[in-house]
Amino acid sequence: MWRPDGSDLRPWKIGVLISPKVKMEPLRIGFLGGGAMCEAILRGLLDKKVVQSSDVWVSDVAESRLEVMRGLGVNATANGRKVVEKASVILLAVKPDTVPEVLRDVHDLIKQSQLLVSICAGVPLQALEDLVPDGVAVVRVMPNTPCLVGAAGSAYALGKNASLANHANIVEAIFGAVGLTVRVPEKLLDAVTGVSGSGPAYVFMFMEALADGGVCAGLPRDIAKKLAVQTVYGSAKMAMENENMHLAELRNRVESPGGTTIAASRALEANSFRATVIGAVMAAAQRSAEMRTKPSPF
């Protein structure tokens, strides 16, 4: 589990289960798709020594991406079938509309002993399970863009053939290398989209507004941006290091009676700040559900 300072963080008590850790066999991971998210996950795995570079295979259609992968010391090829032949864990990281083609191309090579992990947005477990041989374990994971800096908030859901004792631990070992990982029922992944999937955009927008406010109050723009970003980072770190404290209590500690902060909080409340954020989360979750329930291309 990740903290900003790199130390361990106990599982958050939010109604989801983190599986107990058990000793695993060395992983052989094959990435179908070598884009930015694949690279971020791979860098985390190698940095945390979760896997040896010689035990990683990556396929991609772009030679430029394969060159990046080779630069990391892993096996890179344009042939996805070779990746599947070598891997014990197949990590699917392609564009959602290419999933059927990619999996059909390797269908005859996928074995029941392998685990398929998908980070393809909007592709449900049932659709994935329909594209692999019967009995193959499938897990769906939703990381977010802070994965690129080793600070992801990833949620995963187990398919019907995936086990808590084995497959969940593999997923947590992989995605725990790039941030926080929690397990949820698949029906909650739309809500996850609203909070952590789309959440970085809300935070960036808030930081932008905070910096603009500083400029409006007279600060040079570069200083306003630095202070806004550091304030959000420091506040997040405080929240993580005080996980048993309600967020409102942390806020109240800053709000002195009759002071500047309570005046600012009043202005935010008057303009429906919290209701607006809640509405944004719900809008993203609803849109995620709409995209998921469209007629399946599979």
From TrEMBL:
Family the entry assigns: Belongs to the pyrroline-5-carboxylate reductase family.
Domain Pyrroline-5-carboxylate reductase dimerisation: 186-291
One GO BP: L-proline biosynthetic process
Cell location: Cytoplasm
Record-given protein name: Pyrroline-5-carboxylate reductase
A GO cellular component entry from the record: cytoplasm
Source organism (scientific name): Cyanidioschyzon merolae (strain NIES-3377 / 10D)
GO molecular function: pyrroline-5-carboxylate reductase activity
Annotated metabolic or biological route of this protein: Amino-acid biosynthesis
